[in-house]
């Protein structure tokens, strides 16, 4: 029997999708990551406070900002990747702007149109970010995406149960960690949650489908994963 892998917490997958996918094959929900908040140094806090724009591209960074440093950005414009992140930081900052499409290049291009040359941008990121440094930008790590030897052993035990026929990978690190430990001969059919992740999948000589940028990106990816024609391709 084949299984479906989703590298995203089960609790964040709508019940209708859980039920639909379960009718196709056993589903393994395994995020393949551990995110840990990293306190900012006094110098980093000062840089955050004086920024004209603060960029947020992940939900964990948004939650960490609200929990620990909301008072530092009360007069700052927050530029976020998606409506979901905007909801997480509601009431934080002077105003919140959402990228026209939920991918990093769209956010970068959008901010180029807004930003004056003298204005400073701080992006709050993880240690494995794929965000590239732009002129006038400072990248400050606000969390760590960790994966220890013990985590590898647990994942190997969990994923050794069944061959994977379909897999939704939600970040480059998710894919890399899965592919390094996957021992089955069956090559999964991949869906990636964005072009940044898809690029890493393709670099390994594998094919992958990506939903078009849209507000309900996760639902679109799950729809591809569940489609009968996806398994047939």
From TrEMBL:
Protein name, entry field: Tetrapyrrole biosynthesis uroporphyrinogen III synthase domain-containing protein
GO terms under biological process: tetrapyrrole biosynthetic process
Q: Which GO terms describe its molecular function?
A: uroporphyrinogen-III synthase activity
List the InterPro entries: 4pyrrol_syn_uPrphyn_synt_sf, 4pyrrol_synth_uPrphyn_synth
State the source organism's domain of life: Bacteria
Q: Read off the Pfam families from this record.
A: HEM4
Could you tell me which species this protein originates from? Answer: Loigolactobacillus coryniformis subsp. coryniformis KCTC 3167 = DSM 20001
Annotated ranges, domain Tetrapyrrole biosynthesis uroporphyrinogen III synthase: 44-216
